[in-house]
Amino acid sequence: MAAALIGGLVALLIFFSGWLAQEILGRFLPDDFPLLPLVLVFLTVIAVLLLLALLRTADRIPGLRQIRQVLVRFPLSRYAAWGFAVFCVLMLVAAPSAAALNGPCPPPAQLVVATTTDGEEAVRAAADAFEAGRRADVDGGLPRDCRPVDVTVFSVGSAEVLRQALDNDWVAPGSAAPEGDDGPPDDGVYLKDRTLGPRPHYVIPESSVDYLGFLDPGGAGSGGTAGGAPDEEADLDEEAVLEGGGRLRHLGSTRTTPLIWAVPRGFPDDAGVGLLRDDLGVDWARPGLEETSAGRLHGAYQQRLLSDTGGAAGAAAAEARFLTSVSADSSASLLCGLREEAETVALVSEAALHRAQNAEGSGSFSPECPGPVAAELEPRYKSGLPVLDHPLIRVSWEEDEGVAGEQEKFESFMLDLADDPSAYDADGVYAGYRSTRGEGTAADVTAMPVVDEDGVSVAAQIPEWVDDSEPQEWWEWAVKADEARREAGGPATVLVMVDRSTSMASVPEQFAAVRTVTETIVRDLGEEDRFGLWSYPQGETGADAGSAAERVGLDRADAAGDAAAEMIEGLSPAYQPTPLREAVRSGVRALEGEEPGAILVVVTDGVRVQDDAGLGRAELEDVLDDTDARVRIIAVGGGAQQRPGQEACDVGLLPELAGHPNVECRDADQGRADEAARGVVQEARGGN
User: Fold this and answer.
1) Secondary structure percentages of the chain, helix, strand, coil, to 5
2) Residues 498 and 525 both lie in one domain
């Protein structure tokens, strides 16, 4: 028995030595090197030699006779040889079976999650944690090191874009079907120059208010469209049936974060930051009311505050404060834009400010904000402020198959993670957020104080705010805020000028951005707004080469918008000259006498090709100095003229034009045309 045990131990020692050698060799050999077959050949040779040596017939073979003599002389070695020979035989039988079972990894199940710009980093970290957990707890007999699931996380545009895409079978609103494709049914449309990403299994918006907007598109989730009274029957437990065939189910909160006022450091504690104060000598800014739940819920809070204090009649006047201030399509973008705005009170989420504060040493806190936030801001809290609950919403499409098992595990993981205290630690996936009970404050991981406008700590009250937050109630107030915003803004005047130079065709889908910009702007216009469409140049030579053509004259938006949609379909890049300065001058002069703050939108690649010197820089700047009109350049990329890594707004004449205070350039390169055009109408409606 002892000899057999020794033989087995020797065999194991030899086996582990071989395994270690294989691991070491595997690091240096190519992935496709046939190491397993070589190991099997080696084991076969060893097993045959040992078995022959242990038999009496080995005496007839000189080489084996010496081996047998050694084995006979030392009994322990004989037992060890028998044990190792049997082990080699077993390995020869088991190795092919193990290789078959441990073959190439099958494709992982694919789960897709669409979320907001502000929440993408946190959701991605949670998805990575889920993948790691599933990989460590594989069931179903998957080979070693295989991934059972792959979770794709991406950010989508505004809440309105998300709603329309879900309703339209995940085809973005904005332009016509590609050539040769009849398009989806029921007037569905394609957005040719910006991808929404793959169709999601889950959506994680900022707030359940968004979900209630999906249930009633005419309410707070309607973007800029006029909606009626909120549907009192709207309920989080109600399943939303989408026009595109999908269904939405609200599963619960993934995490929470209260909304706050971010005030300049040194802001007096007793000054108060209530929205009724106009004597503080500061500007006010919040994320866009249409684009984000943060902006919508801050507007809702303002409406409730005005109503409670008897100032409901001043709702439109209060909203007007934000029409003329800095705005953005996310809290992170707003904070990024306030780098030099030290005297601005920003209405943002606590989590976004935490990220900005935490990034002071690392240099960046958002893909949209390549540098640190220079403005030193700290939070102020107010009793009753709304809370973003970041709900997990399942999206079920008719043809979904093969992911049900992983979906159940993902949902359980995400909902359990929402209440896991460790997720909110400084190194947790939700650092800076709070649990669904309101615990896990950002103050635990930064120096951010949790005090109200009087400097009194409210840390203990925030869980109560979370418990008292009713999405249905906030949604009703958000509808009223949306109505007040429309009343506050004057009629908007927008003139779109389209670059028809041949350089606009140098990049695939480049000219398609013209259609997207136009339709995005038209979609946001109201009946009282005015819209026009021009193109430049008019022709190839002579006066036509230096002038613009009026395609749709400035008119009421309802008529002009329909005409513009038809006109765009007939336009294409056709002429060599690019009279960019001349076009800007003509457009600005056409807006003289219009509403203050009228906006000229120029869609161009910035490349200027012209036989003569044309209009000079100083002459154009004189024209811009003498006008109230503003110019927004939508840069779609300069093709061959755009160097690798160069921003679209840095091509050709665009840096020079954007240097004037009345001109702003927005990058629409790489499919961001609708993002660049969003908010133009809102800006024009607010005036200067």
Assistant:
1) 45, 15, 40
2) yes
Do 517 and 551 lie in one domain? The reply is yes
Phi, psi of 257, deg, nearest 5 = -155, 130
Residues paired with 278 in a beta bridge: none
Integer CA distances (angstroms), 288 to 131, 304, 399, 464, 480, in order: 34, 18, 35, 27, 15
Query: Which residues touch 166 (CB under 8 Å, ≥6 apart)?
Result: 203, 214, 242, 244, 246, 248, 395
User: Within 10 Å of residue 329's Cβ, how many Cβ atoms?
Assistant: 24
Token representation of residue 429: 């996936």
The confidence score (pLDDT) of residue 103 equals 56
> Alpha carbon of 424 to those of 268, 321, 439, 446: distances in Å?
30, 35, 8, 12
Mean pLDDT of the 104-127 span: 88
Instruction: State the DSSP code for 354.
Output: H
| Residue linked to tokens 């009849």 | 182
Asked if residue 496 and residue 470 are part of one domain, the reply reads: no
596 and 662 housed in the same domain: yes
Q: pLDDT tens, 464-489? A: 889 888 898 999 898 888 888 877 77
Q: Same domain for 591 and 673?
A: yes
**Lowest-pLDDT range, 45-49, 508-512, 605-609, 682-686?**
45-49
| Gyration radius from the chain CA atoms | 33
How far from 168 is each of 241, 245, 439, 523, 561, CA to CA, in Å?
A: 12, 9, 38, 16, 21
Same domain, 589 and 481: no
CA 432 distance to own-chain centroid: 18
pLDDT of residue 201: 93
pLDDT value of position 254: 96
Range of the domain at 512: 490-686
CATH number (domain holding residue 572): 3.40.50.410
Residues 468 and 601 in one domain: no
Closest by alpha carbon to 530, among 588, 584, 595, 485?
595
Least confident of 4-13, 18-27, 188-197, 401-410: 188-197
Whether the link from the prior residue into 537 is cis, omega within 30° of 0, is: yes
Does position 353 have pLDDT exceeding 80, yes or no? Answer: yes
- The secondary structure of 384-435 as a DSSP string is T--EE--EEEEEE-TT--S-HHHHHHHHHHHHHHTT-GGGGSTTSTTTT-B-
265: its two tokens: 């450091």
Q: φ, ψ for residue 177 (rounded to 5)?
A: -70, 150
Structure token digits, residue 652: 């050709």
**pTM summary value:** 0.70
| Nearest-angstrom CA–CA distance, 331 and 594 | 32
Collect contacts of 139-142 with beta carbons under 8 A, ≥24 apart: 141/101, 142/105, 142/106
Give me 342's structure tokens. 């030290």
- Is 328 part of any domain? yes
Residues 507 and 547 grouped into a single domain: yes
